[in-house]
Design goal:
CATH architecture of the largest domain: 3-Layer(aba) Sandwich
Number of strands: 9
CATH class of the largest domain: Alpha Beta
Shape: elongated
CATH topology of the largest domain: Rossmann fold
Number of domains: 2
Strand order of the largest sheet: 4-3-2-5-6-9-7
Radius of gyration: 20 Å
Structural class: alpha/beta
Distance between the termini: 57 Å
CATH superfamily of the largest domain: Vaccinia Virus protein VP39
């Protein structure tokens, strides 16, 4: 058995039933597929059985990349690089289906990078991604809950998200100490458009920097107590950041952009 590297957050998926379930979420026959972190290629093998048009895998580990090349030969294209340094938008002209057992230590960084950099013409048809359960819970959390925060607001901006299932530690080698969750992301047809997506990241950071505090401080920091803005937003400043729904945060970003443009 190949030894996993802690530094790369490696936990190899070995449960055949889970692997089959993942590849059955959407039809990939004659589709272009990208797999992030294929590891030993267990999921890759199952993907190939579904007869996709092309399969490209992105694997940072040098030794694993060599092993994948020996195992699959010319059936797949391998990029031996860090996913955070790869520009996915330029890999294919086709829209792709993305599978990923994401490294736990950079999973949120990968997702936020993709969403913030998204143009209106999405480069993917869907994302089928594995996260630590606690991270997945934050991604799909609804407002007024303790898990709701920056990750929920950013993730749900342009994407509809469905939880497929939780996955036991026994499905991986080495066995992690926590459960994982499988999430399915598809692009929204309608979403609020910003002049600069980085403003969404900036504003959610300001609001959730002190999530237990009332909204008055971040509001004043952004709008200097402007009563007209407050009237338009209809926000109760005695509430806390987790009490505002997604749409309100998107309106706040629009107000901020109008003020600073």
């Amino acid at each position: 058995m190949i030894k996993a590297k802690k530094s790369l957050g490696q936990n190899f998926l070995i449960d055949k039933n889970i692997i089959e379930k993942i590849t059955n979420i959407t039809d990939i026959k004659d589709k272009t597929v990208i797999e992030i972190g294929p590891g030993t290629g267990n999921l890759t093998s199952c993907i190939l059985k579904k007869n996709p048009k092309k399969v490209l895998v992105i694997e940072k580990d040098n030794k694993l990349s060599i092993d994948l090349k020996n195992k699959f030969n010319n059936q797949i294209t391998i990029i031996n690089d860090d996913i955070l340094k790869v520009d996915e938008t330029n890999l294919f002209k086709d829209k792709v289906t993305v599978f990923g057992n994401l490294p736990y230590n950079i999973s949120t960084e990968i997702l936020i990078k993709w969403i913030i950099n998204l143009k209106d013409n999405f480069w993917f048809e869907c994302l089928i991604l594995m996260f630590q359960k606690e991270v997945a819970d934050r991604i799909i959390a609804e407002f007024n809950s303790s898990n709701y925060g920056r990750l929920s607001i950013i993730s749900n901006w342009k994407l509809n998200i469905k939880k497929i299932c939780d996955i036991k530690p026994e499905a991986f080698y080495p066995k992690p100490k926590i459960y994982s969750s499988l999430l399915y992301f598809i692009p929204k047809k309608k979403f609020v458009k910003f002049k600069n997506a980085n403003n969404l990241e900036k504003i959610t950071r300001i609001f959730f920097n002190q999530r237990r505090k009332m909204l008055r401080k971040p509001f004043n920091q952004l709008f200097n107590g402007d009563q007209k803005v407050l009237n338009r937003l209809k926000v109760d400043l005695t509430k806390r950041p987790q009490n505002l729904n997604l749409e309100t945060y998107y309106k706040i970003v629009c107000e901020y952009e109008n003020l600073t443009s």
